[in-house]
């Protein structure tokens, strides 16, 4: 059921043509075009690089970071300036440049080995390396796994809108016209669009709300019940009107930093999980058909507002949700599928222990009367939550789950998930900066030092707070 898009954004593919090469500000477009031609001509002789070879880090806007080593014989001569010219021509941003005497040097100390870390446009990678091979020897790149693009700033989520299924009421004559039918893209809008629901839509909401809320006191976890009460008090949660995303988003932002973003249908797992890394929850606004108020084949606002929203107001659950999102960034398709399965068995269909009994916290359960009753009965199997096993467990999206996973509590579940996430192989570590709501790639010592110094300040503050209360 997991459909994944290509990790290569289409705009990168488009730029990969000579006709769109940007001109060199130094006024050498001819030289650049000539290098491009030469590289293509000589490609067979110089072992053309596969697409992405040597690419260790794909930055935003199609920039790639390369790690190169090469040797220059008799560096005092023209070789050095020619080499510099290659980097200059392709507007390579040099991050690190180091030399040492060549190990295999025969008679002279003028033979140098170079280590260069540089940033260059993705479409120039092969040409730059082939050009370098003409002026230097032993040109090598470090061959590592290509890293799928992922958003690093909250506004990058505008590029994460790949729908698996789009709700199209105009094409579906069994459904009433939805007021959200004009929504074709997902974008953070400020303010979020308000929707005027019809009398019939409100009647459907009333029926769902009444029936489910009668079950919550005995079946929902404490965190859900606490938040639900708050939502009734502050956000217009009541059976006679459908709450607006704008009000709910403001409510969540104050409590856990989560915000809602309208979405036109079911997103790809990669895009959906990525938004969680920024504490953004993609929410539909349309409502299920009135003829089947207790069932919706796709997520609708009953599912989002009654299932997901109350739990997103809990700090520990918010942390757990963000941890899945962060783990997904830059992960391979195989890992995304596992994380999507983890998401399914926790955020959608999770159970947890509470005061000696089992309660529901999964949105798929809390928005489905029938499955909520069934999940807490003795009919299905209850297994302890263990990310390694849960991530590969087969799941059902057509019938009730035969197996549910039970967390000890959210703190324990988050710790287990973070331990699992550390095992996902990636050539980098990430840090979420809550001040800028952005992801920082910890790929230099300085970045790690900066993050550490922020943490030290926070620890000092906490130590001080402990002293004050002891
Ligand atoms: Fe959901």
Please estimate the helix content.
Answer: 40-55%
β-strand amount: 15-25%
What shape does the CA trace take? elongated
Structural class by sheet pairing and helices: alpha+beta
Q: Report the radius of gyration as a whole number of Å.
A: 27 Å
- Tell me the distance between the termini: 54 Å
Cofactor: Fe(2+)
Subcellular location: Cell projection, Axon; Cytoplasm, Perinuclear region
Binding site for Fe cation: 303, 308, 348
GO biological process, one term: dopamine biosynthetic process from tyrosine
Task: Characterise the protein shown here.
- With 470 residues, the chain is an alpha+beta fold.
- It contains 17 helices and 15 strands.
- Strands 1, 2, 3, 4 and 5 form a 5-stranded antiparallel β-sheet that branches. Strands 11-10-13-12 form a 4-stranded mixed β-sheet.
- Strand 10 (351-354) and strand 11 (357-360) form a beta hairpin.
- The chain binds fe (ii) ion.
Secondary-structure map with pairings?
Blueprint lengths: L9 H6 L13 H14 L12 E4 L4 E10 L6 H11 L3 E9 L10 E10 L3 H11 L1 E5 L21 E4 L32 H15 L2 H4 L2 H13 L10 H11 L3 E4 L2 E3 L1 H9 L2 E4 L17 H12 L2 H14 L4 H16 L2 E4 L2 E4 L2 H4 L2 H7 L5 E4 L2 H4 L12 E5 L2 H13 L7 E4 L4 E4 L3 H25 L1
Parallel strand pairs: 7-9, 10-13, 12-13
Antiparallel strand pairs: 1-2, 2-4, 2-5, 3-4, 6-8, 10-11, 14-15
Helix pairs in contact: 2-4, 3-4, 9-11, 11-12, 11-16
Bound molecules: fe (ii) ion (FE2).
Pfam families: Biopterin_H (PF00351), TH_ACT (PF21417)
GO molecular function, one term: tyrosine 3-monooxygenase activity
Family: Belongs to the biopterin-dependent aromatic amino acid hydroxylase family.
């Amino acid at each position: 059921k997991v459909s994944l898009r290509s990790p290569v954004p289409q705009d990168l593919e488009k730029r990969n043509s000579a006709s769109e090469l940007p001109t060199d500000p130094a006024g050498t477009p001819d030289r650049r075009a000539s290098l491009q031609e030469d590289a293509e001509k000589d490609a067979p002789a110089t072992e053309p690089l596969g697409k992405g070879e040597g690419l260790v880090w794909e930055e935003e806007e199609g920039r790639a970071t390369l790690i190169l080593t090469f040797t220059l014989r008799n560096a005092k001569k023209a070789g050095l300036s020619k080499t510099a010219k290659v980097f200059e021509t392709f507007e390579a941003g040099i991050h690190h440049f180091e030399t040492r005497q060549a190990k295999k040097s025969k008679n002279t100390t003028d033979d140098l080995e170079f280590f260069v870390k540089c940033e260059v446009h993705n479409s120039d990678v092969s040409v730059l390396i082939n050009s370098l091979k003409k002026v230097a020897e032993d040109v090598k790149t470090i061959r590592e796994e290509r890293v799928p693009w992922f958003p690093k700033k909250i506004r990058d989520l505008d590029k994460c809108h790949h729908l698996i299924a789009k709700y199209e009421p105009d094409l579906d004559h069994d459904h009433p016209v939805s007021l959200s039918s004009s929504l074709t893209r997902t974008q953070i809008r400020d303010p979020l669009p308000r929707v005027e629901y019809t009398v019939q839509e409100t009647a459907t909401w009333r029926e769902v709300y009444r029936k489910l809320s009668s079950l919550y006191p005995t079946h929902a976890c404490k965190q859900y019940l606490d938040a639900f009460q708050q939502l009734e008090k502050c956000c217009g949660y009541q059976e006679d009107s459908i709450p607006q995303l704008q009000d709910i988003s403001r409510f969540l932002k104050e409590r856990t930093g989560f915000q809602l973003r309208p979405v036109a249908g079911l997103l790809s797992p990669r895009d959906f999980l990525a938004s969680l890394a920024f504490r953004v929850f993609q929410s539909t606004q349309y409502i299920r058909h009135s003829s089947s108020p207790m069932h919706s084949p796709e997520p609708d606002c009953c599912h989002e507002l009654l299932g997901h929203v109350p739990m997103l107001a809990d700090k520990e659950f918010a942390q757990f949700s963000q941890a899945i999102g962060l783990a997904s960034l830059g992960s391979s398709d195989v890992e995304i599928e596992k994380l999507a399965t983890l998401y399914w068995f926790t955020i959608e269909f999770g159970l947890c222990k509470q005061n000696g009994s089992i309660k529901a916290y999964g949105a798929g359960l809390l928005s489905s009367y029938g499955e909520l009753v069934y999940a807490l009965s003795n009919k299905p199997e209850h297994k302890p939550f263990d990310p390694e096993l849960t991530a590969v467990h087969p799941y059902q999206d057509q019938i009730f789950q035969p197996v549910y996973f039970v967390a000890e509590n959210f703190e324990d579940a988050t710790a287990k998930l973070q331990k699992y996430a550390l095992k996902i192989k990636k050539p980098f570590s990430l840090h979420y900066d809550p001040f800028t709501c952005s992801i920082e790639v910890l790929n230099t010592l300085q970045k790690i030092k900066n993050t550490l110094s922020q943490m030290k300040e926070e620890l000092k503050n906490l130590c001080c707070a402990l002293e004050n209360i002891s």
